[in-house]
Amino acid sequence: MIIGEFQQKVGAKKRIAIPSVFRKELKGKLYITRGYEQSLVIVDEQRWEKIISPLVQGPMINNSIRQTSRILIGGAREITTDPQGRFVLPDNLFVYAGIMSDIVWVGLINWIEIWNVNAWSNQLKYLKTHGGEIAEHLTSTY
Prior knowledge:
The protein is 40% helix and 28% strand. It is α+β, with helices and mostly antiparallel strands. It contains 5 helices and 8 strands. It has helices at 20-23, 45-57, 63-72, 91-96, 117-140, and strands spanning 2-9, 15-17, 30-34, 40-44, 77-79, 86-88, 102-109, 112-116. It is globular and about 45 Å long. The strands form 2 sheets. It has a 6-stranded antiparallel sheet. A two-stranded antiparallel ribbon has the order 2-6.
């Protein structure tokens, strides 16, 4: 299970290392792409296929499919890591996430998010204020 939160400094040439507890859960090829709220998302091949399946199978004339494809697939890259789990963040994703010198890794069971440390702090403040509303809305959809 991919869970936990880890802070890390971005290395020279935009190099970062996937935390070892996350690497143990990832199998095969890895993909990184734009996420929502200015985060980045990393998944392995099996999880990637689940994410893109509805987009690939859906009609191009559907606006939601086009827009979701643009954010998730348009900026996606396959990444290769060294034995320590390090890789270089692609420029387009580095800029999209507003990354500076520090990042936060967040494990969310089926995917990993990477956040600019300030954006993550703001997200936590939002969740602290609106967490009850979000939970209530979620329960009303089931």
